[in-house]
Design goal:
Blueprint lengths: L41 H26 L5 H27 L12 H6 L9 E3 L4 E3 L3 E4 L4 E4 L3 E3 L4 E3 L4 H31 L10 H35 L3 H6 L10 H9 L27
Antiparallel strand pairs: 1-2, 3-4, 5-6
Helix pairs in contact: 1-2, 1-5, 2-4, 4-5, 5-7
Length: about 300
């Protein structure tokens, strides 16, 4: 592959003599690779905790303020079941997005032995990340928070305390979708509850006092509206990124396309799995993305 100007945008060492494999610590043993993926970042952990607390608050208001006091048993059961199912799927998607390795390149693999194993031909070049001492594949970028190079890194999201990359983008998309759905559902129920309370006695439409009920509903309305807008935008940008097969970083840096162009449907299946099924909507189904192409180290 010819070296194009786009390579100057990457935070890499571009010349083979700068690889300096003797300065790299050998990669961790395979036994340590099976440990759970979790980013120890204070800001990210705080954002993740706040996310769960906001979902629990919404569930508290929906159940104890609006549905339990309702005289319509069928209305309460249907909406309570729907809201809690969506909330459960949202938190499960968040959990998977946070604890799934997004596609980290083995750290410290820029060793002399590994470079020799690539059997480089004259004119071929490999790229080393000077920050994590890794031979990085094409379309990988270094994350300063995760302190690793991530394959097809889209961005680092503090709300899931993780990078969004090749292996966990599905869970992040599902998280934004389910949060948008429960936000919309909550807004609709708040609207109906206000109308019901205006028509009836405020002391009968909630188990809390009228001032407390109004405050709780207004806070929920504000939270739901804010997150409906935010997650809808994120969901739309993620779907667009998947269909165009171009990550957020690649769009931001205006990197020249160096990979094969595929159809939108093939790009969707690459993220959500083969073939299309209800498993696309499940955070418990791991997409079958096939084996990585030896990280595409050589160009």
């Amino acid at each position: 592959m010819m070296i194009t100007p786009v390579h100057h945008f990457r935070d890499i060492e571009r010349k083979p003599e700068y690889l300096q494999p003797e300065k790299c610590v050998p990669p961790p043993s395979r036994a340590s690779l099976g440990t759970m993926w979790f980013i120890r970042d204070g800001c990210g952990i705080a954002c993740a905790v706040v996310t769960w607390m906001l979902v629990f608050y919404a569930d508290f208001v929906v159940l104890l303020v609006m549905l339990v006091p309702s005289r319509d048993y069928v209305y309460s059961v249907i909406n309570g079941t729907l809201f809690n199912t969506l909330a459960f799927l949202a938190l499960a998607s968040h959990f998977r997005a946070m604890l799934t390795d997004p596609g980290a390149v083995p750290k410290g693999n820029a060793t002399k032995e590994f470079i020799e194993s690539l059997q480089l031909k004259p004119g071929q070049v490999v790229y080393k990340c000077p920050k994590c001492c890794s031979i990085k594949p094409d379309r990988a970028h270094h994350c300063s928070v995760c302190k690793r190079c991530i394959r097809k890194m889209d961005h680092h999201c503090p709300w899931v305390n993780n990078c969004v990359g090749e292996n966990n983008q599905k869970y992040f998309v599902l998280f934004t979708m389910y949060i948008a759905l429960i936000s919309l559902h909550a807004l609709i129920m708040v609207g109906f509850h206000f109308l019901y309370c205006f028509e009836e006695d405020w002391t009968k439409c909630s188990s809390f006092s009228p001032p407390t009920t109004v405050i709780l509903l207004i806070l929920l309305c504000f939270e739901a509206l804010l997150f409906l807008i935010f997650t809808s935008v994120m969901f739309g940008t993620q779907v667009h990124s998947i269909c165009t097969d171009e990550t957020g970083i690649e769009q931001l840096k205006k990197e020249e396309r160096r990979w094969a162009k595929k159809t939108k449907w093939m790009n969707m299946k690459a993220v959500f799995g083969h073939p299309f099924s209800i498993a696309w909507l499940s955070p418990f189904a791991t997409p079958d993305q096939g084996k990585a192409d030896p990280y595409q180290y050589v160009v």
